[in-house]
Amino acid sequence: MIETAAMHYRLHIALVFLAPVALVGGLYAFGLTLPLPSIGRDYVVRIRLPDAGAPAALPAIAGPADRSRPLVVLDPGHGGHDPGAAGAGFREKTLTLGLARTLRDELVRGGGIRVALTRDDDRYLMLEERSEIARALGADLFLSVHADSAGEQDEVSGASVYTLSGGASSQAAARFAERENNADVINGVPLTASSSAVSAILVELSQRRAQEQAAEFAALVVREGQSVLAFHPQPRRSAALVVLRAPDVPSALFEAGFITNPADAERLASPDGQRRFAQAMARAIRIYFARREGP
Question: Do the domain assignments include residue 131?
Answer without folding.
Answer: yes
